[in-house]
Amino acid sequence: MPRLIALYLPQFHAIPENDVWWGKGFTEWTNVRRAKPSFKGHEQPKVPGELGYYNLLNADIKQKQADLAREAGIEGFCYYHYWFGLDEQGKGKQLLEKPLQQVVESGKPDYPFCLCWANHTWSNKTWEKSSALVKEQVLMAQEYNGIKDYTEHFYTLLSAFKDARYMKVDGKLLFFIYDCIGFKDVSTFMQVWRDLAKKEGIGDFYFVAMMPSTLTFDPITNKTCVPNLQSSQSLIDFALSLGFNAVNTFGKRRGELLYIGKWRSLINKLLMRLHLMNSENYDYEKTVAGFFAPEDKQENVFPTVMPQWDRTARVGKADGVYLNATPEKWRKHLKQAFQLVAHKQPEHQIIVIKSWNEWAEGNYLEPDQRFGNAWTKQIELIINQ
């Protein structure tokens, strides 16, 4: 059976910074509740099912989430982690850390977890749609301040790394990095952490680079290029050359380009930037059929699957909606991924689910009012067939 790991967003509790930037009490639910249909037949807002509009500081909610995921056959959650570097006083700055801290400190829920460092800058457009005429302003810059910074970062998370629930691959601590291209010092960072792990007696890290299956620029030269829809090998080789153990591929753009047509889609994107066209939408089943590149079969490549996609709650019409997504079509997509990794060693049969609870992206497995718990039930059906 594949190792299913679901990405987990901790943006469901109020923090002082969000209160200032977005308004008192802002959470992911703020955008979800006020979403509106963009076209006839568009299902918005998304309404949660049995878990309701929860607060992740509630231990009972975290336990219910874990119970639902375990029952479905998901091995563990991958918490998005936000670390922005040392400030002028030499203190590390992180956000949305409380849900994981509670899990580590309380020992509950007794459910596996790992971390993904979501190493991107937050701006005034990160979590909430705004007019294209509004200038983008940095709210929290992602900084990489060298060995002292990397060391402080490591020790901030040491209690999590020592936790018996922390997920491993080949006996090593599993850690994802969201942006390996923009992180120019990532090789040094990984070496520092490996040295510290050895010093603290916790073994080693299994670093995984998150990487789109296709890009419109070359990560080595940083020059614009035509997306390669035949192979992702150059991107994978780039990430591995930095010192990563494996690559987690995300085929969303690849699937869209194959569905719409490469040149037509690129022209459409240009028209959207010029505000001459609204977003292009995609048929879910036809688009996810093109998610997987040939390299996803490789031992050290972990593909991503996606149950649904609709970011209008967060970005308005700036991104396309995946139309006609249903639990049954999600099962077909997931089954294809199962077949893709079946030949790999058991430790490496990893499939990343995007996501467990990205509600403002319309990208979740949690129960909703329309389908109930059918999203997770599809996983059970594949496993038990």
Average pLDDT reading: 94
Q: Extract low-pLDDT stretches.
A: none
Secondary-structure content class? alpha/beta
Q: How would you sum up the global shape?
A: globular
User: Percent range for helical residues?
Assistant: 25-40%
Question: Helix and strand succession?
Answer: EHHHEEHEEEHHEEHEHEHHEHEHEHEEEH
The number of domains: 1
User: In the CATH classification, which architecture applies?
Assistant: Alpha-Beta Barrel
CATH topology: TIM Barrel
Strand order of the largest sheet: 1-2-4-8-9-10-12-14
By oligomeric state, this entry counts as: single chain
Radius of gyration: 20 Å
Description:
By secondary structure, this protein is of the alpha/beta class. The chain has one domain (3-384): TIM Barrel (Alpha-Beta Barrel). It has 14 helices and 16 strands. It has helices at residues 16-22, 28-34, 59-72, 98-106, 146-156, 158-162, 186-199, 233-241, 252-260, 262-273, 284-288, 312-315, 327-341, 374-384, and strands at 3-8, 76-86, 92-95, 113-117, 122-123, 138-140, 168-169, 172-177, 205-212, 246-250, 282-283, 301-305, 322-323, 350-353, 357-358, 363-364. The strands form 4 sheets. An 8-stranded parallel β-barrel has the order 1-2-4-8-9-10-12-14, surrounded by 6 helices. A two-stranded antiparallel ribbon has the order 5-6. Helix 3 (59-72) runs parallel beside helix 14 (374-384) and helix 13 packs across helix 14 (374-384). The longest helix is centred in the last third of the chain and has 15 residues, at 327-341. It is globular and about 55 Å long. The mean pLDDT is 94.
